[in-house]
Amino acid sequence: MGGGTGTGGAPVIAGVAKSMGILTVGIVTTPFSFEGRRRAVQAQEGIAALRDNVDTLIVIPNDKLLTAVSPSTPVTEAFNLADDILRQGVRGISDIITIPGLVNVDFADVRAIMANAGSSLMGIGTATGKTRARDAALNAIQSPLLDIGIERATGIVWNITGGSDLTLFEVLCVYRN
């Protein structure tokens, strides 16, 4: 958000989709602080307009990405990371709906959580090793991209993706913790 096309167009497109009864989820980033006040103000205005036209809105401050990268990360790589996080969010939601899992979660389940939900959060976690499932879940809920914890959440959509060696015990451990 903060540019011209997406900031102005996203609320209009989302409004049309929502008026048709389509579940609308917005996943957007706010500009880095170094991009200037004008761009930040445009982004906030666009987010306010978008919030009125979506069921669920996930806002990721680009400045939060700075806590997820090393100080020597080139600017272009930081922007690519922001784009990749957006891609992971969209893909995560679509995968839950379109890829059958061991525990079948369908579009109705996702709609029940996300319809008219307002502001939402997104955490993504990955891990390897003996406690990989638990560690990935902890990484997701302790993500530097989250402004607040999940304690106040009224609903949670979670998805665990793993290789063929992912065990039932690992999944159960994530669920219980």
From TrEMBL:
Keywords: GTP-binding, Nucleotide-binding. GO terms for cellular component: chloroplast. One of its GO terms (biological process) is chloroplast fission. It comes from the Eukaryota. InterPro entries: Cell_div_FtsZ (IPR000158), FtsZ/CetZ (IPR045061), FtsZ_C (IPR024757), Tub_FtsZ_C (IPR008280), Tubulin/FtsZ-like_C (IPR037103), Tubulin/FtsZ_2-layer-sand-dom (IPR018316), Tubulin/FtsZ_GTPase_sf (IPR036525), Tubulin_FtsZ_GTPase (IPR003008). Residues 103-177 form the Tubulin/FtsZ 2-layer sandwich domain. The keyword Cell cycle does not apply. CDD domains: FtsZ_type1. It holds the Pfam family FtsZ_C. Residues 1-101 form the Tubulin/FtsZ GTPase domain. One of its GO terms (molecular function) is GTPase activity. Belongs to the FtsZ family. This is Tubulin/FtsZ GTPase domain-containing protein. The lineage of its organism: Eukaryota, Viridiplantae, Streptophyta, Embryophyta, Tracheophyta.
